[in-house]
Amino acid sequence: MRYTLPEEFHVFGFAKDLLDWYDAQKRDLPWRINRDPYRVWVSEIMLQQTRVDTVKPYYANFMEKFPTVQALAEASEEDVLKAWEGLGYYSRVRNLQAAAREVQERYGGVVPKTPEEIRTLKGVGPYTAGAILSIAYEKPEPAVDGNVMRVFSRLLYLTDDIAKPATRIKIEHLVRQVIPEGRAGDFNQALMELGAMVCSPRSPQCLTCPVFDYCIARREGVQEELPNKGKAKPPRPVHLQVALIVRDGAVMINKRPEQGLLAGMWEFPMVETDVESEAAKRELVTQQMNERFGVEVEVQERIGEVQHTFSHLQWNMQVWLCDWISGDELPPTARFAAVEELDDYTFPVAHHKIRPMLDKK
DNA sequence: GACGCGTGGGT
DNA sequence: TACCCAAGCGT
């Protein structure tokens, strides 16, 4: 694979025109107030696969609760997870806290300044490492995200599939050759800003683009055809029966395993089923609640259906109201919680749709 | 290299 | 509606 820029590409002019535009047009974002490495770090983790407008309120709350590496390192995992509730990709915040503890203990609370060291931190991959090093420390490292791959695909008419890891490596080599002396952080941010505000996935605003003159795809009229991106598989359907087991104004909840999907979050107990008859579902719920949680229940009525789609799964949930009959020896992951106290627990969004059904009861 | 991992907004 | 997309990382 070739990692060299086309001869006719004017590196200096491109960087200058892009930076002039960025200096004049950049958005006021809360993580751009200063270049504190911890603030940059938290923002980059939150922004992974997540939109700016979604992140803003979470960022403000998170920085208020955990303003320093030390504060995050010393916080309880429940408090940290609660502050992330609703943002998605929860392993991000578990890794972030583990890394904060690592920075506190091993680096005296100072975020490392070399690619080798910072890459050892949990949750810090090639993009995040480059972003922190360039923005906080002005190191000439590339920070290649989806925006940058789209911009460069068009700018240089690259037809490589950006879904493949090898393409990111290639674009990192190319970006490295364009980063201007002394302004690595702004340059990387400018590329992303351009991708977000001008060089959008669909209907790019080429007529107002500050680097229109440098763009090969635009010159050839193929900007709408790029980048080349492989198609994702559709989510796999899963059928689930949800049991709302009520006992004196309390409802049973269960903590998910510490690994895998929605790790460590609370949920109402669920049973996976094939699509079957109503009677079979009732029977299965009764049997499974007994086997897994040691409680005898009487399934009352079906009080609702909820559908929730993940990137790779589609949960089709049918919700059953159940009476607790007997059984006090719950496994350590399960408990009965008063309805008013449910807000103290972290639930996935899929279960937020179930919660209102309890209040109606 | 392929897959698992959330959620919300846009067209 | 049914897609697509969004400042990726770990395994």
From TrEMBL:
EC number(s) on file: 3.2.2.31
Pfam families: EndIII_4Fe-2S, HHH, HhH-GPD, NUDIX_4
Enzymatic reactions: Hydrolyzes free adenine bases from 7,8-dihydro-8-oxoguanine:adenine mismatched double-stranded DNA, leaving an apurinic site
HhH-GPD domain boundaries: 46-197
Alphabetical keyword list: 4Fe-4S, DNA damage, DNA repair, DNA-binding, Glycosidase, Hydrolase, Iron, Iron-sulfur, Metal-binding
A Gene Ontology BP annotation from the UniProt entry: base-excision repair
Cofactor(s) for this UniProt protein: [4Fe-4S] cluster
Cofactor: record remark: Binds 1 [4Fe-4S] cluster.
GO molecular function: 4 iron, 4 sulfur cluster binding; 8-oxo-7,8-dihydroguanine DNA N-glycosylase activity; adenine/guanine mispair binding; metal ion binding; oxidized purine DNA binding; purine-specific mismatch base pair DNA N-glycosylase activity
Alphabetized NCBIfam families for the sequence: mutY
Described function: Base excision repair (BER) glycosylase that initiates repair of A:oxoG to C:G by removing the inappropriately paired adenine base from the DNA backbone, generating an abasic site product. 8-oxoguanine (oxoG) is a genotoxic DNA lesion resulting from oxidation of guanine; this residue is misread by replicative DNA polymerases, that insert adenine instead of cytosine opposite the oxidized damaged base. Shows a powerful dicrimination of A versus C, since it does not cleave cytosine in oxoG:C pairs.
Family: Belongs to the Nth/MutY family.
Name of the protein in its database record: Adenine DNA glycosylase
